[in-house]
Amino acid sequence: MADPQLPEDVLIEILIRLPVKFIVKLRCVSRTWRDLIGSPIFIHRYQNRERKQSVLLVKRYLMQNNGLEPMISFHHPDFPELLVSPNLSLPVLPDLDFRFPPRIYSDVQMYGPCNGLVCIPFVDIIFLCNPALREFKPLPPLNIPCPKGYGVFPYEFGFGFDPNTGAYKVIQISQIASDNWDDFVRKQDHYSRIDLYNSASNSWKRIDAKLPEMVYARSFQIFFSGVLHWFAWIDSSENHPCILCFDIRTEAFLLLAFPADFPKSEDDISSLMVLNESLAMVRYPQWSEESGPTEIEIWVMKQYGEKDSWTKQFVIGPYMVVCPLLFLNDEWLLVESENGQLAVCALEGNQFVGLQFYGIGFKWSAVVYEESLISLNHIISGDPEKE
């Protein structure tokens, strides 16, 4: 006698407790299961389940037959060396020549996550990706006209979700500058352009706004409290740093002030992160082979938007760190160390533990995300609209 069929609500309660990689396989059980797992109701329940599984995504480079190839690997946040899923190759990218020029590596970064999705810009292609479903989808090309003798140089990105409209948005801040290298380095004869992608219309639009001078630093951008954040200078000549913000819902820019007693040094760099559900800045010295171990400061904005709520919460080290990447479980700071590999620093107790990762140590990128069943085919559909 056949087993009695489970009621749908009971089946859903069982399935939402499973990792995405198992649920994807269960779509093959029957057409009924496939339709249930792909239904908006099930995806919503899965997205809002109480017990969510977090995964550490690491972008690294592996040596392949044709040179270095960028990969995304999946790890357990509590045990970063534990691989929980097979590596994910980035589409299109392996077909390009990664051996030259070296600067091309710095262009492969992950932005987000938002509801289990990440954004990966690369040269003139921008992908959205659901790593759990192993889906990639390129955004429509952004064709920016510019005068003869000028080029478009994208230098800042951001990726966020608008809960008011259910749309995912990608912002690209570009510099329109002379093709002459000397003029480019001196920042002469250039201007900024801001473009915003909206998944609801699958199109780009231009945003008119005057921005302060942007500051590039790895781990510089964070999406927090519905707002994208970058470092900038209000007045570079007076050395007044600030945090430039872009509200995904209102599509407006605003500025957040640094702590009044925050040290200002051209030899130091800061990274933006989230610690204990608060906006945080990690201040660390600019690494060089001549510099020795140095301390790392962690500042936290206890009350979002309130300048006076900035607090220097931790001072760790001294360590040899090239770049902090993110916090793991609000207890460890994941960093790229001076040997080009990953390590973790304890926020309490001054522990520094090197991680044994197989990969070429060069500009790592990492995010912690919660697996999602949201398909890119559901949020990006139809032909892109023209600008």
Key features of this structure:
mainly beta; 5-stranded antiparallel sheet; Neuraminidase; 48% strand; 25 strands; 387 residues
Q: Total number of β-strand segments?
A: 25
Largest sheet: 5 strands, antiparallel
Which residues form runs of ≥5 with pLDDT under 50? 94-106
**How large is the count of helical segments?**
6
How far is the first residue's CA from the last residue's CA?
Answer: 61 Å
Find the CATH topology.
Answer: Neuraminidase
The rough form would be described as globular
- Over all CA atoms, what is the radius of gyration? 22 Å
Estimated helix fraction:
10-25%
Report the portion of residues in β strands. over 45%
Query: Which CATH first-tier class would you pick?
Result: Mainly Beta
Q: Into how many domains do the coordinates divide?
A: 1
Briefly note the structural class of the backbone: mainly beta
CATH architecture: 6 Propeller
Give the averaged pLDDT, no decimals. 80
Give a description of the structure:
By secondary structure, this protein is mainly beta. The chain has a single domain (8-262, 364-379), classed as Neuraminidase, CATH 2.120.10. 10% of the residues lie in helices and 48% in strands. The longest helix is centred in the N-terminal third of the chain and has 8 residues, at 8-15.
Architecture blueprint of SSEs:
Blueprint: H1 8-15, H2 20-26, H3 31-37, H4 40-47, E1 54-64, E2 67-76, E3 79-89, E4 111-114, E5 117-122, E6 125-130, E7 135-138, E8 150-162, E9 167-178, H5 181-185, E10 190-198, E11 203-207, E12 213-214, E13 222-224, E14 227-235, E15 240-247, E16 252-257, E17 268-275, E18 278-285, E19 294-301, E20 310-319, E21 321-328, E22 332-337, E23 342-346, E24 352-354, E25 360-370, H6 376-379
